Fold each of these.
Amino acid sequence: MQINNRILDDLTRVTNSALGTMTGVKGEVDALVRQQFEKILMGMDMVTREEFDVVHDVAIKAAERIDALEARIADLEKRLETAESAAAPASKPAAKRTASKSAAKKDS
């Protein structure tokens, strides 16, 4: 038993047509939203990914260079302390001897 109803056929065609139109409208709205979003981003003066990557690499190299220089400074400070401590005991007794000789001369 097959029912041929023209009203249902017409309603089906109208519905399919409306869905097709809505799909087209959705595509147009998506395109407009994307276009507006890109326009807003261009006005924000943002950097590109490539520019960010370049600056990021430079910052990493600078941080590594700073670490190396800090290690070198620490090494040089150790050497300076070692040199000062090696020279300091030899000069202190001489200073004491000079001071004691001056005191002995004053007593005489």
Note: The CA atoms of residues 16 and 22 lie 10 Å apart.
Amino acid sequence: MNNHDLEKRDIAHTEDAAVDHVPEEDAIDKKAERRLLLKLDAVILPMTVLMYLSANLDRGNIGNARLQGLQKELLDNSDNKYSVVLLSFYITYMLGSIPGTLLSKAFPPNYALGAGCLIWAIAASCMAGCHNYASIIVCRLFIGLGESIFGQAVVLHYSLWYKKNEIATRLAAFIGAGVLAGAFGGLIAYGVSHIKSHIETWRILFLIEGLPSVLLGISVVLFLPGRPEHSRFLTESERQLELLRLRSQNLDEGDTGIDWNGVKRAFTDWKSYVITFIYSCMQLTLSSISGFFPTIIASLGYTNADAQLYTVPPYAVGFVVMVIVNHFSDRLHKRGPFIIGVFTTNLVGWLLLLVVTHNNRARYFATFCIVIGGYCTIPLIQSWVSNNTGSQSQRAVHLGFLNSLANWAALTSPFIFPTSQKPYWHTGFGLNLGFSVAAIIVTSIMMIYYTRENARRDKVEGKPVLGQKVEQAKYHDLAPGFRYTI
């Protein structure tokens, strides 16, 4: 921690010498809390999960469409043009992520999230009508714009409703929809490939996966609960209980709009960039899977149609592992050790693909590992950021970093799997392997830092008092009494 941070903490400590108290966990009616959580989960989870399922289908179907003739018909069978189409998504996705996430802080989250969903849904549906290279790039740009408004804003939205030790499990269900999208996408593409029609099958694929998302976007605007303070979804007694729950962990910031000091804190805090680097290591795997997973499966000796079907089991297993890992992460209140474990699985997968050249069973097993590594890490890192940022505005910007700055790695993925290296793709497999190693090392360093910083604060301030009011909204992660999640 630099001298500027220490000075701010000393000021905060002086101003907050009189310790206010927040409700203790024991003061909350546990039965009523369980009923409230069930009610929240019954609406918030299905709608956000469906959005993520939709987003991943509409983003990832380009890989399935490639095998169904899109590259041949629109892109002159050019690898470079296909790579540029993949790349175009990330341009708007990265540029829009920080302002897009802040929209859910400045406006009711259901309006912001619903608008993002409508943008990508309309653009994804329009891809069915593309007849040239330029038009498909324009559609992909708008898909990226829509998803930039949505991507990390859902994590922010969860932090408005759920306590710190409840987020990772919910995010696992949310991100798990992306894993299921890979499975459903393969099944849908397999089914569509057998349709006999005068319309190209890849156009039918875009329509089938794009049009339902338009209805979803409208539903989100109308029915997704916005903020606890104003939502008509809650009765007055439920609202008071929800605010009591949030207050017990100093999360009751209220509807205060954007706090530009929190925005500044996110930009000036070195930890924002280190955690973002770890996320970028995952993004390389995720974007590699999104653009090339059916192609990698096909390289194991399957036909293009069968390859779509064989993408399903790795995604299904990845979903189950994700839910289990994040459930235990919440129960143990730990993030770093689980992040290291998942990246180690990812490392094993890319290593097998790189060094095993003739055993297709081992290579197929490796595809399970990279799906687990690509997806399971997402909710863990997002929860880590959510837990370790003190205020909502700081959290919104840091979460935005995960899509904007972290996607520099994803920009390389369209170019590291050239057809000339098929079926061993040493460049793509090797780069993913190297980034997995880097992620393990940096995560270990951050765990050591957080442990030492928590101990230093305990020494300076004394251990946090149970029920102590922590001024996170005012001083962010520098507030006296704030401790980092390891």
Note: The chain has 20 helices and no strands.
